[in-house]
Amino acid sequence: QVQLVESGGGLVQAGGSLRLSCAASGRTFRNDYMGWFRQAPGKEREFVAGVRWSGDSTAYDASVKGRFTISRDNGENTVNLQMNSLKPEDTAVYYCAAAAGALVALREYQYNYWGQGTLVTVSS
Asked: What is the dihedral of CA 89, 93, 99, 104, to 10 degrees?
């Protein structure tokens, strides 16, 4: 059973920081691409950041580049998202996802496994 479990969401003031973690289990992820998505009320789920489990390739949406950093700890089977300089428009449910066998995946349809999300609320 594949499980992706997000943690670290919460309330933070604009300009503050949060660190999200995704605990991955249930399969070998070495050939997968791991991504963070987010969804705000009334909007489609959108790509935030991604990293290859076994490589150096990273990708960021322009809205978060320079503020967010994705990383992974293969030994602990976790994928992390460090979020700095948070803005109210970052408020959303954040999801961890895995694209099986993908070298890079930037679109929602490419992902096979999803966590249930963690809520991030940024106040002004």
From this structure: 10
70 DSSP β-pair partners = 81
Contact assessment for residue 122 and residue 91, using Cβ atoms and an 8 Å cutoff: yes
CA distances for 47 relative to 14, 17, 53, 75, 95, angstroms: 21, 19, 17, 25, 10
Which pLDDT value is given to residue 56? 84
What backbone torsions phi and psi does residue 53 show, to the nearest 5 degrees? -60, -40
Average pLDDT score over residue span 74-91: 96
What average pLDDT does range 19-35 have in this prediction?
Answer: 97
